[in-house]
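Exercise 7.
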Amino acid sequence: MKTSRQNLNPILVFTVIFILILASTATIFALQSSLSMVTQLSGTISYFDAIKNKETKLVPFMKLYEGDKLTLDKGSSLQLVLFENGSKETWQGPAVLILDKKKGIIAQNSKNQPTISSLSEVVTNEVRRISKIIDTSRMQKAGVRIVRGQSSSEKDKEMLPPVELDSSEEKEVNIARSTYQSLLKGIDKTDITPELFLFSVLADYDQYIEMAQLIEIMKKKQPDNPTIGQLTTWMEEQM
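Solution. The predicted structure, written as tokens, is:
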């Protein structure tokens, strides 16, 4: 026996349609790869999320995608790591920036030229992993736990001793430490890109004490960046 359209529950129909729309949006989001990650911001910056088709709060370590639009007011600044071309760009407002897969960043209404530096593929990939470690959406929800005010020496006492590395692992970590020292040369005192790189490498080897020390350095460089605290939260969950 066929069911007539008149007998269909309108609430059920609406629910099914809504679920299909969400599933479609999620599929589009999953197919897109991130083009960039925010590593530093200050001042007033508006962010239009092209996938969600709405304005969203911009926070450090957030990933950006094709078509995302950033509007920097006068006096604001933004630092991005671009994954496609392996560059680090710092922009000053006023400016309107649009993420583009081929061109990187398309600047509109900007008289200021960005400060650009090249990053190796290794460094870019490690920095990219930080955005996977941290769920930036948690920053916009009430009740998120941010660890503050605890010195590295206090944290060290609570942490497990460092995992002993074999010779090949020690070599890899030492190479990362050398790269870290190289990244520190000639950068702004608030730039945490070197710390993000080394943190990501150390995370592979469970070197929690050294990771905690890097977090303290990042907090000193960017004391107004609340997202850094999530690295502590994530690290504690791994131990």
